[in-house]
Amino acid sequence: MTAFASRDVLLPMGVAHWELRSVNHRYLELSFKIPEIVRDLEFHLRDFTRQHLTRGRIDCFLKLELKQEKIELNIDFSLIEQLMQASQKIAERFSLTSEVSLFDILKWPSIVQTPEKDLSEIKKVLLQSFQLVLADLIESRAREGEKLNACIRERLLKMEMQVNKIGAKLPEIQKSVRAKLHEKLVELRIPHDKNRFEEEVIYLMQKMDIAEELDRLKMHLIETQRILVEEKIMGRRLDFLMQELNRESNTLASKIPDGITIQDSIELKVLIEEIREQVQNLE
Predict the structure, then answer these.
(1) Intra-chain end-to-end CA distance of the chain, in Å
(2) Labelling 240: which of 54, 102, 111, 211 has CA 20 to 30 A away?
C-alpha cells in the first residue's frame, strides 16, 4: 500500500532524519539504508516492523548529522620507542643509513587510536523515534485502506447485481435452449417424439444448471463483505476469495454458452479482476 512518513529528531550530538516509504507488494519486503555507525540497529528495526506490518515493500532511510567534537587521540609512545630501537638495531647491523620518518611511524597499526564514541543514548533515541515514524506510516496506510475498502465494497454491490441479473435470466435461457433445439431438429428434418424431445431438453438443462455456482458466488460475496467490515488483517484472505470468485465465474460462463448472459458474465469477471488488483494493496 502506498504511503510516506518522515520525522526530524533532535539527538544529544546532532539531528536525525527518518523517511519511510511504502509501495504495494504481495508480501512484506524490507529495505534499510542507515549509516554504518548505527548499523547494529537494523535487526531491531526489522523485528519491530514485522510485528506491525504483514504486506508491502517498505524502504527506510536514516540520515544522521552529528556535531564534530574535539577528539583526543591516544598515542602509544611505548610502541614508538620499541619501533625506534628496532629500527636503530637493524640500521647498525646492516650498515644502513636510512632514517625512520614520522610518516612511517604513524602508518604502523595501533600507534594512534581514536577513542570510541558512546552512541548508546543516540541509539535509544533513534529506536524510539523509529516507532513514532512507523506509526505515522501505518496511519497513512490506514487512510488509503479506507478509500480502497470503499472502492471494493462499491464493486461488490455491482457484482451482486450481476449475479442476480444472471439468475433472473434462467427462465429466458431455458426457453432459448428449447427453441434452438427445436429449430435444429426442424432444420435437419429429423422426426422427433414429444417425450423424447422433453427428455433431451431436461438433459440440456441439467448440464447448464448454474444454481450451485450462483449460490457459491453469493456466499463468497457475503464473506468478502464481512471481512471488509470486521477484519483488520484481510489482504491474503480476500486474495483467496477473489480466486474462488473467479473460479466460480469461469464455471458459470462455461455452462451457459448463450448470448443472453455473455455480457453479464464478462462484466462479472471484469469486476472480480478489478477487486483482485485492489486486494493486493490491503494489509
Answers:
(1) 8
(2) 211
The reported pLDDT for the residue numbered 73 is: 67
Contacts of 107 (CB under 8 A, 6+ apart): none
Shared-domain flag, residues 23 and 80: no
175 and 238, same domain (yes or no): yes
Which residues have C-beta within 8 Å of that of residue 176, sequence separation ≥ 6?
258, 260
Statement to judge: residues 190 and 237 lie in one domain: yes
Give the confidence band of 46 by pLDDT, cuts at 50, 70, 90: very high
Cell triple for 60: 527506510
- Specify the number of domains making up the chain: 3
The domain containing residue 109 runs over which residues? 74-113
- Give residue 30's pLDDT: 94
Say if residue 83 is exposed, middle or buried (CB neighbours under 10 Å; 0-12, 13-18, 19+).
middle
